[in-house]
Design goal:
165 residues, mainly beta, Pnp Oxidase, Chain A, eight-stranded antiparallel sheet, two-stranded antiparallel sheet, 10 strands, 45% strand
């Protein structure tokens, strides 16, 4: 069976350096790096009374790992604005209405066409780094980041394998 149903002659997987992350319908500007989408399910072990030497296993609670987004420091205020909805220094409180957002993560093929997409639900910012450690001896870009907690993700069935020519 071919790995790619629309393009059976394609044998190489998609590259990880072409992607988009969107919230509020807008692409996140200057995104450099994103941590993986990761889900872990606890294992519940137990033994039956009649078989004391055999351990049985069943699934328990499922946990979704936080997602970290990193980008070069820019004048775009979106990271800071979202982080301020969870805790605003001026008011000392949070926006109960708007602090959660849904994300779209889109992996693009080499031509820049969406190949695979995921929807991430009920996200909120748990950590915000406005500026990294600054060092005059380094030759690097200043990176800011947000860490996002969420309540799960699923593949977007509306994004199908694109035809390639």
């Amino acid at each position: 069976m071919p790995q790619f149903s629309v393009n059976p002659s394609r044998v190489d997987p998609y590259k990880k350096f072409k992607f988009l992350v969107k919230w509020d319908g807008k692409v996140v500007a200057g995104l450099y790096k994103m941590s993986p989408l990761k889900r872990t399910t606890d294992v519940i072990t137990y033994r039956e009374g009649g078989e004391a030497s055999v351990e049985r296993k069943s699934p328990g609670k499922t946990h979704y790992a936080p997602i970290t987004l990193e980008r070069g420091v820019t004048h775009d205020p979106e990271f800071e604005s979202w982080a301020n909805l969870v805790f605003n220094k001026n008011s000392g409180s949070m926006s109960l209405k708007n602090f959660r957002k849904d994300l779209d993560i889109v992996l693009l093929n080499e031509a820049g066409v969406p190949a695979i997409a995921y929807k991430v639900y009920r996200c909120w910012v748990s950590e915000y780094t406005a500026l990294p450690e600054l060092d005059a001896d380094e030759n690097a870009v200043a990176i800011q980041s947000i860490t996002i907690e969420h309540e799960g993700w699923e593949r977007d069935p509306g994004v199908v394998e694109p035809k390639e020519t």
